[in-house]
Amino acid sequence: MTFESIVNDNEKLYRSLKEDQIKDGRISKSAFRNNKSGISCNAAKNRCNLLIKRQLIKQFLNIDKHVHSCVLSISDIRNLAKAYPFYVPEKHNKYHSEIWESETDRKQSVLRKAIELSKIAKLYFEYPSKR
């Protein structure tokens, strides 16, 4: 597997969320816990909002009829959550990225980090919109 640290603090990561990972308009810490691998996201990589939204909808609409997503900045991931963002491109998704526990540990199981990530994540969009 190929991976590289994300060094651009202006980069953003986008994560799809299940409906039960949003409570009272806030993102739950459960959205950022994974005992097996890093937290999967998609990097912006200079794409416009429309292309990012289209990809997230295309990827996840077949799993759930309602797609939610959030956005996190690399600087917040590093500085506030003390987590490690990496590009981890896949065969069918060159934008795939992950948030790791440390520079060498892919798991994201520490509750404190999940709480911090949920605090810094901002709701990005939902599809179809309920409003």
Give the % helix. 10-25%
Number of beta-strand segments: 9
Mean pLDDT level? 88
Report Rg: 14 Å
Quote the distance from N terminus to C terminus. 41 Å
State the strand order across the main sheet: 1-7-8-5-2-6-9
Helix-strand layout with pairing:
Blueprint: E1 4-5, E2 12-17, E3 22-23, E4 26-27, E5 39-43, H1 49-60, E6 67-73, H2 74-79, E7 84-87, E8 96-100, H3 111-120, E9 122-127
Antiparallel strand pairs: 1-7, 2-5, 2-6, 3-4, 5-8, 6-9, 7-8
Q: What does this entry look like structurally?
A:
This protein is α+β, with helices and mostly antiparallel strands. It is globular, with a radius of gyration of 14 Å. It has one domain. The model has no long low-confidence stretch (mean pLDDT 88). The strands form 2 sheets. It has a 7-stranded antiparallel beta sheet with strand order 1-7-8-5-2-6-9. A two-stranded antiparallel ribbon has the order 3-4. It has helices at 49-60, 74-79, 111-120, and strands spanning 4-5, 12-17, 22-23, 26-27, 39-43, 67-73, 84-87, 96-100, 122-127. It contains 3 helices and 9 strands; from the N terminus they run E-E-E-E-E-H-E-H-E-E-H-E. The termini are far apart.
